[in-house]
């Protein structure tokens, strides 16, 4: 059966109305894909007409150019979920169009462990594998069993990619690295029935009154604590903390640096009087290097929480979140992002990389490169 709602709208709305940062002009056309068939139809249509096709989920990780995008945009709304039992685990197969936050909420209420630390993150289920969504010591890579995709150059059949083949890394995956390859239509998550979870994030552990690495058996308590912490940082949409502003969450990823680079950065921080000793620079050791909080660098480089220039600024709750005020443009966002990057580079010799995905022509891409 052909999907019922994949026709272009007569006039595509500006993408500022469909993205949480609230900037950006219209696409060439907007398709709504509310079924697998509608996704396949959109892919086949773009292939046949040789038209570029961009994929939209909830629009919470996008920065769209003021002129809009010369492409069809397909909004993924594929619904549905099924559960299959596998020993103590449950594999939940969830349609790409469902709300991620609502899905996590239901799992926590049903006593299914695995994603409780990932509560409060906006967007769709289909988008979580794209940048390997993560927060409070967890990432979806930990629980993704498989991802079902419609390849953009295939014959319309669905392919199941095992989690181990998704190329997950810190805020990345093969889907993010190759956005023209495939559209995610369903994701399988392996969750545990009746189990608690290990708390790996210091701030969360402190809040729950457990040690880092200790278990907490009350999934609801973990979810509620994460939600409360996120709200206090202005990281939950539709809450009073960020009422009236646009945001894409963290605008930059935390830089991961080598030990040598960490020492160089630390010496600069000591010289500038930010810390007394090199080792006082906050950092977390991981398998691929040392993660330094981008917010710490941004604040020390002169951009405090609540900093504002015209209609753009930083969240009063977190220096990592660029926010827009009514009437802001994408060029203003990009201008601010460039100023932040420049200041951090001058102060510490580190080039911040943006977290959101950029759509559109000139100006926007300037923030994405590694060179200032
Ligand atoms: C307040 C706030 C807090 C946030 N906190 C976090 C956080 O803690 N951790 C975190 O990792 N992220 C966070 N984010 C970023 C964002 O919510 C996530 O990246 C989310 O997964 C994006 O989902 P989306 O549906 O809105 O994707 P969109 O913004 O619509 O799209 C993002 C990218 O994914 C692609 N995409 C979307 N759906 C599909 C699909 N079905 N198939 C193929 N490609 C697709 C798009 O083409 C685009 O390249 C936050 C954002 C906000 C606004």
Overview features:
alpha+beta; six-stranded antiparallel beta sheet; 8 helices; 23% helix
Summarize the topology:
Elements: E1 27-33, H1 36-48, E2 53-56, E3 62-64, E4 69-76, E5 81-86, E6 89-95, H2 100-109, E7 112-113, E8 134-135, E9 138-139, E10 144-151, E11 159-162, H3 174-177, E12 182-193, E13 197-198, H4 202-208, E14 215-216, H5 219-232, E15 246-247, E16 256-257, H6 259-271, E17 284-286, E18 289-291, H7 294-300, E19 308-309, E20 312-314, E21 322-324, H8 330-348, E22 357-359
Parallel strand pairs: 1-4, 2-4, 3-22
Antiparallel strand pairs: 5-6, 6-12, 7-12, 8-9, 10-11, 10-12, 13-14, 15-21, 16-18, 17-18, 19-20, 20-21
Q: What does it look like?
A:
It is a single chain. The protein is of the alpha+beta class. The chain has 8 helices and 22 strands. The strands form 7 sheets. Strands 5, 6, 7, 10, 11 and 12 form a 6-stranded antiparallel sheet that branches. The chain has a 4-stranded antiparallel sheet with strand order 15-21-20-19, covered by helices on one side. A hairpin with a 2-residue loop joins strand 8 and strand 9 (138-139). The radius of gyration is 21 Å and the shape is globular.
């Amino acid at each position: 059966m052909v999907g019922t709602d994949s026709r272009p709208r007569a006039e595509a709305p500006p993408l500022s109305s469909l993205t949480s940062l609230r900037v950006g002009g219209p696409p060439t056309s907007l398709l709504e894909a509310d079924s697998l068939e509608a996704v396949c139809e959109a892919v086949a249509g773009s292939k046949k007409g040789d038209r570029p096709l961009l994929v939209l989920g909830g629009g919470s990780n996008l920065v769209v150019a003021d002129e809009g995008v010369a492409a069809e945009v397909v909004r993924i709304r594929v619904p549905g979920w099924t559960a299959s039992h596998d020993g103590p685990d449950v594999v939940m197969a969830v349609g790409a169009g469902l709300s991620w936050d609502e899905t996590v909420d239901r799992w926590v209420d049903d006593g299914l462990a695995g994603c409780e630390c990932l509560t409060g993150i906006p967007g769709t289920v289909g988008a979580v594998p794209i940048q390997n969504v993560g927060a409070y010591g967890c990432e979806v890579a930990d629980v993704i069993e498989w991802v079902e995709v419609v390849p953009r150059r295939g014959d319309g059949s669905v392919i199941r990619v095992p989690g181990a083949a998704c190329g997950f890394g810190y805020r990345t995956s093969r889907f993010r690295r190759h956005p023209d390859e495939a559209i995610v239509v369903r994701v399988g998550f392996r969750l545990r029935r009746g189990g608690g979870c290990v708390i790996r994030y210091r701030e969360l552990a402190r809040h729950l009154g457990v040690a880092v690495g200790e278990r907490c058996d009350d999934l609801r308590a973990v979810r509620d604590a994460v939600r409360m912490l996120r709200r206090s940082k202005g990281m939950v949409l539709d809450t009073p903390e960020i009422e009236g502003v646009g945001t894409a969450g963290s605008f930059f990823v935390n830089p991961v640096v080598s030990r040598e680079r960490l020492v160089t950065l630390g010496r600069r921080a000591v010289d500038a009087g930010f810390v007394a000793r090199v080792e006082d620079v906050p950092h977390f050791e991981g398998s691929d290097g040392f993660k330094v909080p981008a917010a710490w660098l941004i604040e020390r480089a002169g951009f405090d929480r609540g900093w504002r220039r015209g209609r753009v600024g930083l969240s009063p709750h977190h220096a990592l979140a660029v926010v827009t005020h009514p009437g802001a443009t994408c060029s203003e966002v990009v201008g601010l992002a460039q100023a932040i990057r420049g200041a951090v580079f001058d102060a510490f010799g580190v080039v911040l990389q943006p977290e959101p995905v950029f759509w559109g022509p000139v100006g926007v891409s300037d923030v994405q490169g590694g060179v200032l």
